[in-house]
Amino acid sequence: MRQRHNLVQAIIDAGLKDLTMISNDASMPGYGIAKLVEQRRVRKLITSHVGLNPQVAVQMNAGELEVELVPQGTLVERIRSGGAGLGGVLTPTGIGTLVADGKPVITVDGREYLLEKPLRADVALISGYRVDKNGNIWYRGDARNFNPVMATAADVVIVEADHLVELGDIPAEDVVTPGVFVDYIVPGIAMTATTLDRSNLKEIVARRVARELRDGDFVNLASGYRPWCRSSCPPTSGSRSRPRSAWWGRVLAPRSTLTRATWWTPAASLHPSESVEPSSTP
């Protein structure tokens, strides 16, 4: 789920604490909602996994943070049932495990189910890629996993918009969360950060990655990269490609051999003229 960076920073700046946070995960150190955990602003965390944020374990073991771990599918269904006004959701997940401790067990047609109670929040902080001025939202990629249900299960809904667009710019059939659910719109990182010229980004990426290929390599190419990479490979390389909606099967050297900037910053470190040479690591 995409992080709502400006909204998280606003919570920190406001000095809010003793929060109960419902989230798919606790993010990674220094990123997004992890800052709230690191600054001890969260009293209780309801989530599906916490392995990416070591501070959760530290505070939990010290008795400073209450953590309720919920299977991911069950978590989203509990939120959905809270938004739909239901009394809960029946699921077989967790039967016979610690997850079932203290929860009602209901038998339906001879099969046992746990009754998981609905989840609602006072405030939902969500992220939308395109948001029009009425609050209608279109989500990009996996942001559609949790954001739409969370928008239905809170008293106040605040959306952080990557791109604020005019009415009608989002086709009616593409609206995922109708504006009637949204109370406030705030600008996201994409609206407040300096705009990067991406007009030739595919060519830059393709030419840089083509330098990593060896004779006879087979490469899975993301959509749109095939022509650029074929034209960037030397005619004698013998490398072959096949189109596929995925990233490269083998691309750059292992991360341990690259700087963080080299791996993550396309405009700065993937330019054809930069001096990073292909790694000899297989």
What would your notes on this structure say?
The protein is an alpha/beta fold. It folds into 3 domains: 103 residues, Glutaconate Coenzyme A-transferase (3-Layer(aba) Sandwich), CATH 3.40.1080; 72 residues, no CATH class; 69 residues, no CATH class. 25% of the residues lie in helices and 23% in strands. The strands form 4 sheets. It has a 4-stranded mixed beta sheet. Strands 1-2-3 form a 3-stranded parallel beta sheet, with helices on one face. A 3-stranded antiparallel beta sheet has the order 4-6-5. α7 crosses α8. It is globular, with a radius of gyration of 23 Å. It starts with a helix and ends in a 13-residue tail after the last helix. The C terminus is likely disordered.
Write a short abstract of this structure.
The chain has 282 residues and is of the alpha/beta class. Helix content is 25%, strand content 23%.
